[in-house]
Amino acid sequence: MLSIAWAPLYAHPLPAGHRFPMLKYELLPEQLLREGTISEANLFQPTPLPAADILRTHRPDYYARLVSGQLTRAEERATGFPWSAQLIEREVTILDGTVEGARRALRHGIALNVAGGTHHAFADRGEGFCLLNDQAVAAHYLLAQEPTVRRILIVDLDVHQGNGTASIFRDEPRVFTFSMHGARNYPLRKEESDLDLPLADGTDDATYLGLLGATLPPLLEQVQPDFIFYLAGVDVLATDKLGHLGLTREGCRQRDEFVLRLCHRHAVPVVVCMGGGYSERLVDIVEAHANTFRLAQNIYF
């Protein structure tokens, strides 16, 4: 059965400037339930992840200041969020969604987190609407707790480079980081992933899918991962306000289908996190994300 992490506080209300991009966390599961792609039985509600699991990835001093509201003004501005206890509860709950999703993917082949993909969070700081790095935390959890997982591949197809993830795993040979992103997009200063594929502004469906198709299959053969984390950001859409690429919704769907069929064919468990999406029309964001869940249901179950 398809397992999907979702909690009501994923859509925790924020000040007016932040509300629009957060609505997808509420509307996406509603859409999937309404159309019958999933039922309530597919949803599981994560809980705040214990600090011990978070501290495999994040520095104790940073985490202590984060949870106690003692970040400096500059640090808070870098995250893009005003601090609140509810925000921290949301973040550590998202972490559990990805960790528990990983446990379920080991049993069923795939699991998804309606949130997650917080790839701009470094071990010692947050950036770009990311406070704690859920895929990094979950990868460290698997390496520590699951003896069958010895090699992990992170496939980051959000339009922004996964700079925090690249930094966290720079000296970790068991985790291979692959980021395919807009060359001129945020962050201005890129970190070095194990493999980076920077894309020109306006990259269209054919170019994007051709590059991905030429890169990912040999990468799987090279890395031989026991587990994959997939960041399926829909900010690659031409309609996205922050993305600057040229993909259509159909191109984005084909991207997800390619990745998920590849994981399925190779029998490598995968957790999918949603990442970014900032199109002017909310329907473009929700429908593009919904396609990822529809494909997971169709391919695996």
Automatic annotation (TrEMBL):
**Record's SUPFAM superfamilies?**
Arginase/deacetylase (SSF52768)
Q: Does the keyword Hydrolase apply?
A: yes
InterPro entries assigned to the protein according to its UniProt record, in alphabetical order:
HDAC_classIV, HDACs, His_deacetylse_dom, His_deacetylse_dom_sf, Ureohydrolase_dom_sf
GO BP terms: namely: epigenetic regulation of gene expression
Keywords associated with the record? Hydrolase
Which intervals hold domain Histone deacetylase?
22-283
What protein name is recorded for this chain?
Histone deacetylase
Mention any Pfam family matching this sequence: Hist_deacetyl
User: Do the record's keywords include Hydrolase?
Assistant: yes
GO molecular function list: histone deacetylase activity; hydrolase activity
Which family does the UniProt entry place this protein in?
A: Belongs to the histone deacetylase family.
